[in-house]
Amino acid sequence: MIYVQIYSYLTVLLRWCWKLVKYPLLIFVSYVLLVASLGYYVYSRVAEPMPYQSQPSGRLKSVPDISQRPNGKEVLTFFALGDWGTADQNQEQVALLLAKNIATVPDRTIRPFVLEAGDNVYENGLARGWDNPEMMAQLSRVIDANYADIHYQNEPIEFHVVAGNHDHRGDLRLWETYVEDRFSGQDGRPIILSYNQHHPDIPDTNDQKEYDALNDAAGLIELPESMGIDSGVATFIAIDSQKMLELYSRVPNEPELQSDLDAHWEQLELLASAGKSWLFILAHHPVSTFGPHLGSQDSMPDRLLRALLFFFEDYGNLDHPAYQSFIADFEAFSDRHPMIFIAGHDHSLQLNAVSDSLLQVVSGSAAKTTFVNPGEETIYSYARHGFARFDITPSEVWIEFVDLDENSPVLYRLN
To answer: Model's pTM, two decimal places?
Structure first.
């Protein structure tokens, strides 16, 4: 009887294989369905959101009592969140939580501000073209609807924004021009400052003339920039990590691009040498994460999906050789310039101690969440919507993770 069943199964399998060979369209459809099914499983699965904490060491300490956090007028307070561009209820809830937290900040010499780590409009960035009605509707849904009412002492909040990989699919020049003009603190709107699209030879007028000039500009204009934050205690640098990873992936076959990559590091070296107490790098892609973008997951579906998509070069995952070079160079850079690296990309909250001189904060759950499996570097992780808050003095950095559960504060001190 068992042989009859085996024969029956083999017959069905052979008939199916014959159909695949006979009908190429059936092969293609089967392939697409398999990839889609695996992709949905791999990228939509979310681990049960359980916060994870390990004992920090060295200069980093866990602080159970939030009342110990400094609250003097000279303390510099800011917030970091990323991957907000869904225009859905999750984004709205995190925005309300952000407004609530900002309202608790006492009087400060420098007003609190927000760092946004990219993927500002899903799935394909801003629609192209000046005064494009679709683009204006996108901004209304993503920004106006969620952040227009966030103020500090009746003044608009500044949002310092970098691009993510999804933004690179759309019109980046609009962020530097139209968006900065529309969101300049007027009519109750926030102030948005966009980075890595400026050109030194083009006046920063935020009008269509600048937009057209940027589109026509030749040469590299995505170099790291110092953010417009007048702080005596910290240096803030914005980088276009998508552009850097693209260069890393292309240099092996296009060695003439090495000079472009070198220009990024020369600019970073210059900006990081300001001599202030703390250095913060804002990017979309992290140098350490333990979510889906780690790449080298252990599950069979992950491996099978990567095998099926062998012809796509996905340098957005940490296991890609280009990404590994990106990480190695930042680790070497941090030996000379200790830093806190703020990013999103993975949709979770994470604090990872990469080395004594490199601390990674992942804050990419302003609208989406994805699973996170803690690794050896993990100090804290949580697959939950939220953001990170920073309070800085010349001698200390306080990092709090704030999530929609609003449980006991998760607070760390770096000195």
So the answer is: 0.89
